[in-house]
């Protein structure tokens, strides 16, 4: 089950609120960042056909937007797992009568990981210690496929859609999502994560459009910036990767990292910290698959939740040693040039 919302259809349905002179998200990118190539993670969310068509289905009418999330498929249950992409929630409704489990993603600092997440979350493999990032080192990793096809809305439209817990009933009605459903639980938890207070040393913001993500990121690191995402040659199962020569540090100690959330349209949880280092790491899988992976290393974790996924996986204490993680393919890091 996925949230699939075509920005083109949504734009047509709500075009009356958009000025003819308004720039499209892509035009805004080129206007603010004229010399910054657009990473694949952004292209996919602007142009869904850039990747293989996943069967998006959207019905617009009656003042609402109905997102077809694939109900009625064989198997009897609904399963949503965006933890492998750091999307912030994992939902499994199973068969009728079974409970719904909602787990926060591993890339938000103030959340404690559940025991289930520690054992089953694909993000577990993405955490490592900075001292272990060197040529010829090996790591067992799984870079999951970009299967979440909810795309960007133009800012002029996104700004007119509420995004707060106290407006949840109105939001669910607008997207024809049934209260109490798995979809509603996902949307509720994404909003809740965005409303959580930032931790010490963190500057956070949830971007509900590409334009707002650009504005937040450039306000923190300047307009002379570039954006980059992890790219994997092809999809593979979990396997051993070897770090190739040329681990490259990017942008000093200042960056903005934006994590894709699971929602009816593209929402990114962005945070900036002065205690991070970003690297581009070239990897080669056991089957020959090559990857250019973005690694983020946190040099001060003292304010993180002591039960954060990283501490449980790496068996270290908060604030003791730099902790790193690779970014999934649909996350973005902004670096000053």
UniProtKB/TrEMBL annotation:
Q: Which InterPro entries match?
A: BURP (IPR044816), BURP_dom (IPR004873)
Q: Record keywords: Signal included?
A: yes
BURP domain residues are 127-337
Query: Which key words are in the record?
Result: Signal
Any transmembrane segments, and where?
Answer: none
The signal sequence is 1-21
Record-linked PANTHER family: BURP DOMAIN PROTEIN RD22, BURP DOMAIN PROTEIN USPL1-LIKE
Task: Give the protein's recorded name.
Answer: BURP domain-containing protein, putative isoform 2
């Amino acid at each position: 089950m996925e949230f699939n919302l075509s920005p083109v259809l949504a734009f047509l349905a709500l075009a009356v609120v958009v000025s003819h002179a308004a720039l499209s998200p892509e035009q805004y990118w080129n206007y603010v960042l004229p010399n910054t190539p657009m990473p694949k993670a952004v292209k996919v969310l602007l142009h869904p056909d850039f990747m293989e068509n996943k069967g998006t289905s959207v019905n617009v009418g009656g003042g609402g937007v109905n997102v077809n999330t694939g109900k009625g498929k064989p198997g009897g249950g609904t399963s949503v797992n965006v933890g492998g992409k750091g999307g912030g929630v994992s939902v499994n409704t199973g068969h009728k009568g079974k409970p719904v489990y909602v787990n926060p993603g591993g890339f938000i600092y103030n959340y404690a990981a559940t025991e289930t997440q520690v054992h089953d979350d694909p993000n577990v493999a993405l955490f490592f210690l900075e001292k272990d990032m060197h040529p010829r080192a090996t790591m067992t990793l799984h870079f999951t496929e970009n299967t979440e096809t909810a795309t960007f809305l133009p800012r002029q439209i996104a700004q007119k859609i509420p995004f707060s817990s106290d407006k949840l009933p109105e939001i669910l009605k607008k997207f024809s999502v049934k209260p109490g459903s798995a979809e509603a639980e996902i949307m509720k938890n994404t909003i809740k994560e965005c409303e959580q207070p930032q931790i010490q040393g963190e500057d956070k913001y949830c971007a509900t459009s590409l334009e707002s993500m650009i504005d937040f990121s450039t306000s923190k690191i300047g307009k002379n910036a570039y954006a980059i995402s992890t790219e994997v040659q092809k999809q593979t199962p979990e396997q051993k990767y070897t770090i190739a020569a040329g681990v490259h540090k990017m942008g000093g100690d200042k960056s903005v990292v934006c994590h894709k959330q699971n929602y009816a349209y593209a929402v990114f949880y962005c945070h900036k910290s002065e205690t991070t280092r970003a690297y581009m790491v070239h990897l080669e899988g056991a089957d020959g698959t090559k990857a250019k992976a973005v690694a983020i290393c946190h040099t001060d974790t003292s304010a993180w939740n002591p039960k954060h996924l990283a501490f449980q996986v790496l068996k270290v204490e908060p604030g003791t040693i730099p902790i790193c993680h690779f970014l999934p393919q649909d996350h973005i890091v902004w670096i000053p040039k």
